[in-house]
Amino acid sequence: MTRKPHVIIIGRPNVGKSTLFNRLVGKKLALVDDQPGVTRDRRLGDAVIAGLEFTIVDTAGWEDDDPETLPGRMRRQTEVSLEGADAALFVIDARAGLTPLDEEIARWLRSQTLPIVPVANKAEGKMGEAGVLEAWSLGFGEPVPLSAEHGEGVADLFRALWPIIGDTAEGPEAEADSETVDDQEIDGDEAESVDESDLGPLKLAIVGRPNAGKSTLINRLLGEDRLLTGPEAGITRDSIAVDWHWTDPASGTEREIRLIDTAGMRKKARVTEKLERLSVADARRAVDFAEVVVLLLDATKGLEHQDLKIADMVLQEGRALMVAINKWDIAENASSLFNGIRGALDEGLSQVRGLPLFAVSARTGKGLDTMLTAAFELRASWSKRVPTAALNRWFDDALEANPPPAPKGKRIKLRYITQSSTRPPRFVVFGTRLDMLPKSYERYLVNGIRRELGFDAVPVRVVLKSPKNPYKSG
């Protein structure tokens, strides 16, 4: 498919860039707050205006700071985003009017070869009229008066963009949205697993506590400084998805991955600021969209209670989980550290004993290819369907090896089992007096499914169903 034209949103902090981004993609993807500097990493989205399709890129607010500071590194990310772009929307705040920083950005943009569309945001009502007139002085032609919050002026934006990208933009296409892939269903006994080509890109989210090295890890995989990093904890705020092609070293084939970086998750009691609460909520939503989640640990800190809480949250959401210990190149007593974390995971997450555990280094690249290979294998297990005949053969053997108990002399009869869905795998057991079946026996069935049927460390759901008694009053 032909590459869509890229349109960059640029401007100083708090002029409404992320609000405009959300308006154009039709979803609240970027975090928005009254305080400046919320956006720190580039975020890409698919935008459509009256059939004009393009990729819109939200960027961090441009600030005049030393290049080594966090705002300075954010500005460098914004500068890099213009490379290869087709147009830029230079956004100002019409109510505040032009500022010295707006004029500095304009001077820099005039040195670029990129077509610039001046956008006077927050132009609703009479309060924005003066700012729209001032925007003429930027030297980029007629400004587009806009209210990103209320959706006013989008038609004018279309008229400004069409002469620039209209010839290269794509028309509407009826394609499946990869963000909303539902559980894959396969009827009967036709197949045991879903072909990888049917699943699309592997949606791989990286989660963990602040400063575990999540953004650094993704930058290492991509081979570029795509995400903002640094010694400061909590740099990442938005969940950022990056599409990428990974070359499998074993087969030499290219495999598609959607990498999802997330904000660090601290203990709930320590999260007091509204913006951090929004960031953590955004990270949780990213887990919902992921297929496989990597919980990244810091080798210098080991496994903490908060890590187990994050892991449990991922498993409760039904995602396939793996654990990676980052900063392995500076780990002390590496062997005992690995074995200690292995034992703590098996004890703290007994419902999925044997989670895949890897030692990696985002700085050197150690172990990353092995981790990605395992991620694809884990997704295959997560998406697998067992034929009903094979499933019930296992079920009969499991009942014969360990028959269900007979509490108070009343026999519990388990009749048969079927797999109702995948991603995560769900199984329904039919029988009588199932309300009397002990939890320990349910665990026995779940552990058997995972161990004997090839579901490894995948979260497995088992539902018990008894036939309704037509003579029992409701």
Automatic annotation (TrEMBL):
Residues covered by the EngA-type G domain: 5-169, 202-383
Keyword GTP-binding among record annotations: yes
GO biological process: ribosome biogenesis
Transit peptide as UniProt keyword: no
Skewed-composition ranges (Acidic residues): 170-194
Top-level division of the source organism's lineage: Bacteria
Spans annotated as Disordered: 169-194
Classification via InterPro entries: G_ENGA, GTP-bd, GTPase_Der, KH_dom-like, KH_dom-like_a/b, P-loop_NTPase, Small_GTP-bd
PROSITE patterns, per the entry: G_ENGA
Molecular function as annotated in GO: GTP binding
Record: residues binding GTP 1: 11-18, 58-62, 121-124
Keywords annotated in UniProt: GTP-binding, Nucleotide-binding, Repeat, Ribosome biogenesis
Binding site for GTP 2: 208-215, 261-265, 326-329
Pfam families in alphabetical order: KH_dom-like, MMR_HSR1
Coiled coil spans: none
Family annotation (PANTHER family): GTPASE DER
Function: GTPase that plays an essential role in the late steps of ribosome biogenesis.
Protein family membership: Belongs to the TRAFAC class TrmE-Era-EngA-EngB-Septin-like GTPase superfamily. EngA (Der) GTPase family.
Summary of subunit composition and partner proteins: Associates with the 50S ribosomal subunit.
Protein name per Swiss-Prot or TrEMBL: GTPase Der
Organism: Pelagerythrobacter marensis
